[in-house]
Write a structure and sequence with these properties.
With about 160 residues, the protein is of the alpha+beta class. The chain has 4 helices and 7 strands; from the N terminus they run βααβββαβαββ. The protein has helices at about 5-15, 30-45, 90-105, 120-130; strands at about 1-5, 55-60, 60-70, 75-85, 110-120, 135-140, 145-155. The chain has a 7-stranded mixed beta sheet, sandwiched between helices. The longest helix is centred in the N-terminal third of the chain and has 15 residues, at about 30-45.
């Protein structure tokens, strides 16, 4: 399940606490510097588009985050996601991305979703493939190295 994030969700995560009435995982969803970057990203995206991010929730536990990575252009919404290391490999990301695809198909502003994965992240590639994303290209990022670009039509 996904829940739209609020600023106080990030504040709690930055304090090492679970947001809302959710239970925390035994490992953080992301390091503090990544969470701080996601707070800034959500603020920038929310200036033009909402929702900007979602908590990934499994069995009453906040296990991950999914974010719009930049303000959408021409109906294309780029997303990124991550799950706490101790909760990876349990299907949480796949279920969350399925929820994002369902949401996108009901929002007339969204014509397609886009995501990027490392060329070595086979698990994330499988999540996207199972949810209808097609490989549409590759690029090299200065920080992340070689990436595969994925797209899923919502029309």
């Amino acid at each position: 399940m996904i829940l739209e994030t609020h600023e106080d969700d990030y504040a709690r995560l930055l304090l090492g606490q679970a947001p809302r009435d959710l239970r925390p995982t035994d490992t953080p969803i992301a390091p503090p510097e990544v969470l701080a970057m996601l707070v800034d990203l959500a603020r920038r995206v929310e200036a033009d588009f909402s929702p900007a991010a979602w908590l990934i929730v499994e069995n009453g536990e906040a296990v991950g985050l999914c974010s719009v990575t930049k303000p959408p252009q021409n109906g294309l919404v780029e997303i990124g996601y991550g799950v706490a290391p101790s909760r990876q490999g349990r299907g949480s990301a796949g279920r969350a991305i399925a929820d994002i695809v369902r949401w996108a198909r009901t929002d007339p502003r969204v014509q397609a979703l886009s995501a990027e994965t490392s060329t070595t992240n086979l698990a994330s590639q499988a999540v996207l493939t199972r949810n209808g994303f097609l490989r549409v290209g590759e690029r090299v990022d200065d920080e992340d190295g070689p990436l595969i670009v994925w797209r899923c039509s919502t029309q």
